[in-house]
From TrEMBL, chain A:
GO molecular function, one term: heme transmembrane transporter activity
Assigned protein family: Belongs to the CcmB/CycW/HelB family.
InterPro entries hit by this protein: Cyt_c_biogenesis_CcmB, Cyt_c_CcmB_bac
Location(s), subcellular: Cell inner membrane
Record organism: Tectimicrobiota bacterium
Taxonomic path: Bacteria, Pseudomonadati, Nitrospinota/Tectimicrobiota group, Candidatus Tectimicrobiota
Protein name: Heme exporter protein B
Signal sequence extent: none
Record GO cellular component, one term: plasma membrane
Example GO biological process: cytochrome c biosynthetic process
Bilayer-spanning residue ranges: 35-54, 116-134, 141-168, 180-200, 212-234
From TrEMBL, chain B:
Organism from which the protein derives: Tectimicrobiota bacterium
Keyword terms of this UniProt record: Cytochrome c-type biogenesis, Membrane, Transmembrane, Transmembrane helix
Domain Cytochrome c assembly protein: 4-182
Protein name: Heme exporter protein C
Topology versus the membrane: Multi-pass membrane protein
């Protein structure tokens, strides 16, 4: 009886600490909007530059639009992580947060959710833009798109946060983060891009079950793995 | 039957080599020379592909050795995180370096074969794509080791070693799925792995054995070097401390 109460309160503390770290990050972001702004502007830039690279063929652009969108999200993930690291590095706030935490994996989960929320905001902002520029009707398949984007962005956030923590103290952080993050996330990117392509082409949710299951497996595998190894990153 | 004899012989050689470096060296040279002779003299030329097919022995042996190497990185990384002995970190680092070397060999010998047979230097075939992505991951692994000047470097690298290897089946699945969306070029056919005659199989197995022996020899030397380097670093630190710097 007493053991279960201890465990209950332990998990309660855990959830509360996740929310506290997340709340702190989101509050800082809400006041400055530095991370979102740089991610969003960068994503728009990537889409625009790709638009020029592909040329004036509207049919071709429609075909590659989903890929371009995911590449934009991928790059802005890297940019957002770099920005967050800069802001945190200025104050050395991470070690302070770690001291206060009951279980350090709360930090990982909070950072992953935070990163995912930024990504979702960016995706929500660039989807209508892409819809207008590339003449794609995203509204017709919004439910499927929501699923694909949630699973895809959760995976990207996990991998991104994990490698951001690993490369935190490297000399060439700006180079090392994308070099680790991009190749590892290739499978997820492939699944997300082709699921989006098929949805936009008018396929139903059942046609993309394979991709959704795959993304689910990817997320679960890497989330579990990250939680296991996270203590090794933090401990001294 | 012949295959099982060869495998048994190989395991015996490996066990003895583990104990004695001299035996390892001799076994490596003998198997290398035998493999060369088998490839160029003994193995018959393939009917359709001719002499070009002979690169298959080197190519596939390198590819399998590469997977063994990356597997060693993963296992050594897990043991390192668990036991915290620098020896396992040295093994993982060395295996990653040699694995990248073999991966590069695979990426070089593949196009040499593909050009005359497929009519193109490169195709985004699942296996090729997987190898390329693996190369990128493990080059990043080596760069992470160079760029981190932190006592935690070994731990970070170990985590990447595990994550990278876990990623392999996922990459495999995704590139296969991705590839089937594209039409197969007419020039391309399935790789020449099927229908090996007994002579070809023998040549291949000896070649694979030689490559694995080479890998383990390089691993042994490289890990010893890493261990020595670590010892020197520790000594230097101690001297600095003693001099009060």
């Amino acid at each position: 009886m007493s053991e279960s109460t201890v465990r209950m309160s332990g998990s309660k503390i855990f959830v509360r600490q996740i929310l506290a770290v997340l709340g702190k990050d989101l509050r800082t972001e809400w006041r400055t909007r530095e991370i979102f702004t740089s991610m969003f502007v960068f994503a728009v830039l990537v889409v625009v530059v790709f638009n020029f690279a592909i040329g004036a063929d509207t049919e071709l652009i429609r075909q590659v639009a989903s890929g371009v969108m995911w590449v934009a999200l991928l790059f802005s993930t890297v940019l957002g992580l770099q920005r967050a690291r800069q802001l945190e590095g200025e104050e050395e706030s991470l070690s302070g947060v770690l001291l206060a935490l009951y279980d350090s994996s709360a930090l990982f989960i909070a950072k992953t959710i935070g990163q995912m929320l930024y990504l979702m905001a960016v995706a929500l902002a660039i989807l209508p833009l892409c819809g207008i520029w590339f003449r794609i009707d995203f509204l017709s398949c919004w439910l499927g798109l929501c699923l694909v984007f949630l699973l895809g962005m959760f995976g990207l956030s996990i991998i991104g946060t994990l490698f951001s923590m690993i490369t935190l103290h490297t000399r060439a952080y700006e180079v090392m983060l994308p070099m680790l993050f991009l190749p590892i996330s290739i499978p997820l990117t492939i699944a997300a891009v082709y699921a989006t392509v098929q949805l936009v082409a008018g396929k139903t949710l059942q046609d993309i079950t394979d991709y959704l299951v795959f993304m689910g497996i990817f997320d679960v595998v890497f989330f579990t793995l990250s939680l296991i190894v996270f203590d090794f990153i933090i401990e001294d | 039957m012949q295959v099982w004899w060869l495998c048994g012989l190989f395991v015996c050689i490996l066990l003895v080599s583990y104990k004695s470096q001299l035996v390892h060296l001799i076994a490596m040279y003998v198997s290398m020379l035998t493999a060369m002779w088998l490839i160029f003299e003994y193995a018959p030329a393939e009917q359709m592909q001719g002499v070009v097919q002979k690169i298959f022995y080197v190519h596939v042996s390198s590819a399998l050795t590469m997977f063994v190497a990356f597997g060693v990185v993963c296992v050594a990384s897990i043991i390192f995180l668990w036991k915290k002995a620098t020896w396992w970190d040295a093994i993982a680092h060395s295996a990653a370096e040699i694995g990248v070397l073999f991966c590069t060999l695979v990426l070089l010998t593949g196009p040499i074969w593909g050009r005359p047979i497929w009519g193109t230097w490169w195709s985004w075939d699942p296996t090729l794509t997987l190898t390329l992505v693996l190369w990128l991951i493990y080059v990043a692994y080596l760069m992470l080791r160079i760029e981190t000047h932190d006592p935690k470097r070994a731990r970070f690298a170990a985590i990447l070693g595990i994550v990278g290897f876990v990623d392999v089946p996922l990459i495999r699945w995704s590139v296969e799925k991705w590839r089937t969306l594209h039409p197969k070029p007419v020039l391309m056919q399935e790789g020449g792995t099927t229908g090996l005659t007994p002579a070809m199989l023998l040549t291949f197995l000896v070649c694979l054995g030689a490559f694995l022996l080479l890998f383990f020899y390089l691993l042994r030397e490289r890990a010893k070097m890493a261990q020595n380097r670590h010892a020197v670093e520790v000594l230097r630190q101690r001297i600095d401390e003693a001099l009060g710097r």
